[in-house]
Amino acid sequence: MNRHGSVVIRAIEGNSRVGHAVELQQFLGQQLPYGIHPLRSNPPYFIDLRSDTVTRPSAGMRAAMAAAEVGDDVYGDDPTVNHLQASVAERFGFEGALFFASGTQSNLAALMAHCGRGDEYLVGQEAHTYSYEGGGAAVLGSIQPQPLENEPDGGISIQRIAKAIKPDDIHFARTRLLALENTIGGRVLSMSYQREATEFAHARGLITHLDGARIFNAIVKLGIEASAAVAGFDSVSVCLSKGLGAPAGSVLLGPREFIARARRWRKALGGGMRQAGVLAAAGLYALEHHVPLLALDHANAEFLGDGLRELGLRVEPPQTNILYVDIPASKTAALKAHLEQRGILATVAPRTRLVTHLDLPRDKIDTVLQAFRAYPHWDS
To answer: Is 72 helix (H, G, I), strand (E, B) or coil?
Structure first.
């Protein structure tokens, strides 16, 4: 056997020994390009503004994951998953909860548990369930989306909702559900609007679902209890892998009977996980330690926006951790390259979205502003 092969075997046989781990890292480092290296701890970009989904588990979170007690969650036997579900249900004031690998899957299972083939749900054109989740409701659930224009504040006007509800006629899909999202594009829906919208929907016989992908950002921004943030909704999807920093996971909330139906759809969608307590432990850690830190993300987004505005750029004032800045189309490619040369990754476009998160403390935001200031072509 060649030298590299013996190194790999020795490292596998004794991977708790530092020397062997280093040898394995050296071997793999000679074979694999940087971007897919399994042992490197640092990504190629040290500042990533594309999304709050790019956060990596902290040392404390990794320790919690490693220590998690696990079981087979398809059988309902994983104690850490069960603890997470009970904890989130209690926090938000729901009877039942179900752990999912992703928010896309959680939202889809919710729609399929609420609606039947040929039913329709009302949804904003900017909403993730309509625009960014692969058309799953229509493709996999045979549920027709009826997209409605979002207002500048992110809501959908009651007038538009009322107009979109179909009459009881065989020519039309049956309007079954109203889906809202909070936050949406970083904007926080007001509690008065949510109350008005859900009360109106219920009065018209509709079910209500909330995509709470960033619901904790709304909770922190408004300074309210979790239960108040979801009042009036029949079901809610709560994401743990964005601003809270968990590597994966969302929790679907609702009545017990609804959760039982969603569990069946989760299995059909390939979402049954076995020893998922490793992931659930990350979610529990995030809920215990990271929620208050969202206020820092909001403050950093505001700080970044103020700095970019000083350069003469048009910046939409951020409400939470997402801000939008207008970049001249002629400069987007060069600016993107300029930032990447300085280790900064951003989705640069005429309407650029920048997202602050757990892995970007204030000093890194300062670095971003220095890079923008150093771009030499603003006046050309």
So the answer is: coil
Reduced to 3 states (helix: H, G, I; strand: E, B; else coil), residue 53 is helix
Number of H helices, E strands in the chain: 16, 12
Q: Pick from 365, 245, 215: which is nearest to 302 by CA?
A: 365
Supply the pTM of this predicted model.
Answer: 0.88
User: What pLDDT shows up at residue 379?
Assistant: 74
Question: Residue 366 domain-assigned?
Answer: yes
Q: Is residue 60 part of a domain?
A: no
Question: Is residue 43 a part of any domain in this protein?
Answer: no
pLDDT at 374: 96
Question: What's phi and psi for 32, nearest 5 deg?
Answer: -115, 145
In which residue are the tokens 């000679």 written? Answer: 30
Q: Are 237 and 110 in contact (CB under 8 A)?
A: yes
Dihedral angle computed from the Cα positions of residues 63, 69, 74 and 75, in that order, rounded to the nearest 10 degrees = -170
Residues 171, 238: one domain?
yes
Domain contains 269: yes
Phi first, then psi, for residue 342 (nearest 5°) are -105, 15
Q: What is the CATH number of the domain that holds 302?
A: 3.90.1150.10
- Assess whether 98 and 172 both reside in one domain: yes
Token couple for 317: 């004032």
CATH number at residue 279: 3.40.640.10
142: left (phi over 0), alpha (psi -120 to 50) or beta: left
Q: How far apart are CA 173 and CA 158, in angstroms?
A: 20
Last residue of a domain, one of 272, 289, 306: 289
User: 83 is written with which tokens?
Assistant: 């603890």
Which domain range does residue 334 map to?
Answer: 48-54+293-374
The pair phi, psi for residue 360, each rounded to 5°, is -125, 85
Q: Could you write out the DSSP letters of every residue in 76-102? A: T--HHHHHHHHHHHHHHT-SEEEEES-
- Total number of domains constituting the chain: 2
* Residue whose token pair is 């075997």: 9
Residue 168 tokens read as 């009881």
- The predicted-structure confidence for 149-172, as pLDDT tens digits, reads as follows 999 999 999 999 999 999 999 999
* pLDDT surpasses 60 at 8: no
For residue 28, the tally of other CB atoms under 10 A from its CB is 18
Q: Which residue has the tokens 């083939």?
A: 117
306 and 362 inside one domain: yes
